[in-house]
Every structure is written in C-alpha cells, then in structure tokens.
Amino acid sequence: MTSSDLWDEATASRYDDDSAMFSAEVLGPTVDVLAELAGDGAALEFALGTGRVAVPLLDRGVPVTGIELSQPMVDVLRTKVDAGRLPVTVGDMATTRVPGQFSLVYLVFNTLGNLRTQAEQVACFRNAARHLAPGGHFVIELWVPGIRQMPPGQTAVPFEVSPEHTGFDTYDLVTQQGTSHHYTRVDGETYRYGTTNFRYVWPAECDLMAQLAGLEPAARWADWSRAEFTADSPSHVSVWRMPVSGVVGDG
C-alpha cells in the first residue's frame, strides 16, 4: 500500500488544463535533457500521469514505458497514444516492476514527494536502480523546500498568487510532511479548493537515497536548462548513474 494521494477521474480529466506545464519553454529543455541521457536506449517514467513528458519524448524517437498509480490518468493518456506504442503498468513507483532494462529512469515535476514516507522514497530509488542498465541514469526534478522563507512560528509559504490561482504550502518541520493548498478560479466568479500531500526532501537526502540504491552522482542543475545549482535555487534536476559494474545496493 502506497502513501501517495490517488488522482481520481475528476482530477485526471482536468490535469492537462494547466497550459504552463505543457508550454514549449517548459517541455523543450526537459525533453532535450532526457533524450540525451537516454541515448540509443529506452526510458522508463515513474508516475507517468497523462503523458505530458512521455509523449513528446516518444515523438523524439525514445522508446518509453511507464508506471502510473492512477488508472484515470492512464485513461486520459490513452486518448493520446495506444498501449502498443507506450505501455504502462498501473502500480506504485516504489515497488512495481516492469520487464527489461533501461538506459534512463526518470521522475519529474516534484513527484518523488508524493511518496510520504522516507522508507518509500528510499524504495523508489532502489526500484529505479533495479530497472537501470549498467551506465544508465536516474533523473529527478524536485523543488527545494521553501522553509527558509518562513519566520519563526509561520507554517505556510505561498508559491503562486495570481488572479487565476493562489497556492501555498504548509509544512511540519518535525515530520517533513507538507500539504499544497490550491484555490483555482473556475468560471471567473467561483473558486475550487483542492489539496495534495507530500513529504519534502532535501537534495543531500536524495544523494543518500541514491547511495543506498548503489547509484553514483552524475550531475545537479537548478533547472532543465542546466543552470548552476546554488544555495538560492528553488528547485533542482539531479542525475545519478548506475556504475558500469551494475551492482545495486539492497541493504
């Protein structure tokens, strides 16, 4: 049993409405990096969703397989591409296995945090390693927790304030649990409120999880344009490599 929130049919039906996620400025650099890392091999996407990244990567000539927890999200994907071209297994990304080895396993858009226990997050890294061919890469895109912005006693940090959407995160600094709160304008007059839950992870903690999985660090950037990652970066794209020996840590 996974601790992840489960995207239902209503959520899946409007997931693609966020046009910013699908813009060329966002997807172009993302797909460029992933296609380069995949090389002549195949890619496996954890939490593939409706195929926002997988479909354009597939269009670039990279064979893609997916693991996705939500059947309604897969149903939306199937309106874009059939199972013969982009196979997907419904299951959680911490434990679900698919056949074959891959030159690239990737997990984008902060989705690692959907696993709300440290044990599951460690298991996710190990599951990625089990699917990697020697020399293959595991890539994650993840935000850096915004708790540096909070004065003592504050528990919430806004991440977007606009006429169409207001969002803020609340943090429990003891458990590393958090909740994203979304107020989205629906028809110009009313708002829809929704939440998603997560466990936040620091970049250094990700490196330790990778080490436990037998992976070695390869790169860390602030974003998909490969800008330098600094102490002030609000997010990171991190890459680890399976050693050519192919030894995976199961400890």
UniProtKB/TrEMBL annotation:
- Matching InterPro entries: Methyltransf_25, SAM-dependent_MTases_sf
Q: Which residues form the Methyltransferase domain?
A: 44-136
* Keyword line: Methyltransferase, Transferase
Where, by residue number, does the polypeptide cross the bilayer?
A: none
Which Pfam families does the record match to this protein? Methyltransf_25
A GO BP annotation: methylation
Can you provide one Gene Ontology molecular function annotated for this UniProt record?
methyltransferase activity
Which protein, by its recorded name, is this? SAM-dependent methyltransferase
